Amino acid sequence: SLGPDYQVVVFEDNVVVTHPSFVMKSDRLEARFKKGNSEINQGQLGTGRLEIAEATGREVIVTRRISDDQVQVAKAGKVTFKAANFNDANQNDKIILEVFPSVQKGQSKVIAKSLETRIILVGEEMIVEGPVRTQIVGVGLSDVENEEGGNEPNLPESSQRETIIDAENGAVFNKPSNESNKRQLIFEGNVSVSDSDFNLLSNKLTAYVHPFSKTGLIDKAIAEGNDQYPAQIKHLSEDGQMHLGKAGSITFLGSSGDIIMDEWPEVRRDEHSSIANRRDAQIILKRDGSISSRGVDTKIFREKDKEGR
């Protein structure tokens, strides 16, 4: 007992918690309940409102059903549930995952890369603190809407495309955007993206997605560099052309597959190089391999330039 208002109950061995918003399985659970006002319930163990539950074990598993009837499965060595303030309608319950946590939805997964990494589930939002890897399987950042305007790309059913995003300082998923019909995915700290059509390095990456999309298609993604290191991209166009580029800001458009480079952009293709001559110059890499630009100089690197002659 914790005074007149709270009591702690410890459960052990194949513990299953069935909550209105999740199901949790663990080896051990320490739960704190707020006692009810009823005199009948005062002496009963585990009665009242669950305030905090700390689950531990070889693998704690939390299953939640989120928007569009999708199932989210979280795993960790330690999971802490914290109930929202009963008197604050704006608060949500929190589920805190620690000790190499991971969260999976469909075939896509978010995986901690460090023992210190924490994942916090709050409503539809997921906050990652520390180094993390995100694996998007089936549809990647470079996929665009089909010609009929639907939200699914023209890919074979057996396609297993995969996009991998690594971020050293963490990430936020499904963060509300200023545009009510979109959500944000934010990755920070030495962000590395490996996609079927491009590789990308940046200090920060922000993607805007259609809310709770089952396909994973994005509206746009913006990669930002910093004062010392611009964002860098290695892009393979539909016609097989390889482009090497860098800029202060690189934007990928999900509707067309075009890549827009701003803030001192540079692009190298074979022996041709396009280099900005002013800060507000812009280079656009088209999905079909063509390039449009303004405010840039073009330089041709011949074999003798490469050899230093």
Q: Which helices and strands, and how do they pair?
A:
Layout lengths: L5 E14 L2 E13 L14 E18 L3 E13 L11 E5 L3 E4 L2 E5 L5 E5 L2 E5 L2 E6 L24 E6 L2 E7 L6 E12 L3 E12 L8 E7 L6 E6 L5 E6 L1 E5 L5 E4 L3 E4 L2 E5 L5 E4 L5 E4 L1 E5 L2 H5 L2
Antiparallel strand pairs: 1-2, 2-3, 3-4, 4-5, 4-6, 5-8, 6-7, 7-10, 8-9, 9-12, 10-11, 11-13, 12-13, 13-14, 14-15, 14-16, 15-18, 16-17, 17-20, 18-19, 19-22, 20-21, 21-24, 22-23
Would you summarize the structure shown here?
The chain has 309 residues and is mainly β. It contains one helix and 24 strands.
Query: Which secondary-structure class do the elements indicate?
Result: mainly beta
**Could you estimate the helical fraction of the residues in percent?**
under 10%
Strand order of the largest sheet: 4-5-8-9-12-13-11-10-7-6
Low-confidence stretches: 38-42, 146-158, 212-216, 302-309
Which descriptor suits the 3D outline?
Answer: elongated
Number of strands: 24
> What is the string of SSEs from the N terminus onward?
EEEEEEEEEEEEEEEEEEEEEEEEH
Account of the protein in words:
It is a single chain. The chain has 309 residues and is mainly beta. 2% of the residues lie in helices and 57% in strands. It has 1 helix and 24 strands. Strands 4-5-8-9-12-13-11-10-7-6 form a 10-stranded antiparallel barrel. The chain is elongated, with a radius of gyration of 24 Å.
